[in-house]
Sequence to fold (88 residues):
Amino acid sequence: MNFGSTEIILIVAVLFLLFGASRLPQLAKSLGQSRKAFKEGMREAEEEEQIEAQKRAQIAGNPNAPQINAMNNDELAAEMRRRAEVNQ
Fold:
């Protein structure tokens, strides 16, 4: 979707009519801030996802990790406490 100079001039003229010359810089600033906040949120979400994937891989890759379905309740509770301490 390529815009020519005529289309861009027409869009700018309509924006001036709708918002006025004094409101356009405020509008552009708020759009820029929103875009920046969105990108930051996406970056944080990707980082959290990578951290979680590393934790899952670390737990799954440990051959000495006990099998949960072969544990009784006391052993399971002890293992949960141990993993909570490791994660903190």
